[in-house]
Design brief:
The protein is mainly alpha-helical and about 170 residues long. The protein has 10 helices and no strands. The longest helix has 23 residues. It binds guanine. Guanine (GUN) binds next to helix 7.
Length: about 170
């Protein structure tokens, strides 16, 4: 486990390398939050990272969203994801779908990608197969700005759980 105390002593590069896993293949979020150190708590550190996202351009937000794998997608089935993503998808049973459930994910992933041009993001560790499928169907009728905002909210939940797993708090 990492400690807040040790994280507060790291230079920008070491801080970024140590915590890069919090945001999927997007170390720039952690790197920009370093400016707000020292952090009084893990919660405060995570809030600084969310403030980075709040201040980010739409293009940067979209790049972060697009860095996430599709749920039960081809890469997930082939276990070609980051360690965090593999574990997250397994936690909701997405690695053990029936052929019917798999077909449903495939259809909703395709419809969502067709409508928005980025992958559907939900914090899978706080959901199960059924709540994920329901949310996918419901969120298809949102407008683009609301879906970008919701995706970033969900990235906040994903990253908070990743940080809380790794840093004593
Ligand atoms: N894609 C959609 N939701 C998630 C999630 O919770 N974790 C990861 N890694 N990718 C996702």
């Amino acid at each position: 486990m990492l400690t807040l105390q040790s994280l507060n002593t790291l230079d920008r590069d070491a801080f970024t390398q140590t915590l890069h896993f919090a945001f999927e293949l997007s170390p720039w979020v952690v790197e920009r939050a370093w400016d707000a150190r020292p952090f009084a708590s893990v919660e405060a550190m995570h809030e600084a990272m969310m403030a980075v996202l709040d201040a980010a351009t739409t293009a940067d937000k979209l790049a972060l969203i697009r860095a996430h794998p599709e749920l039960a997608g081809k890469a997930a089935i082939a276990k070609q994801l980051t360690a965090e993503s593999n574990a997250e998808q397994a936690s909701a049973g997405l690695d053990r779908l029936t052929p019917e459930e798999f077909a449903r994910f495939h259809a909703l992933n395709a419809a969502y990608a067709e409508r928005f041009g980025f992958p559907f993001i939900i914090c899978v560790r706080l959901n199960d197969k059924d709540s994920i499928l329901k949310a996918m169907a419901a969120r298809l009728s949102n407008d683009e700005a609301s879906e970008i905002a919701e995706a970033i909210t969900q990235v906040g939940l994903i990253s908070k759980l990743r940080l809380f797993d790794a840093v004593t708090h």
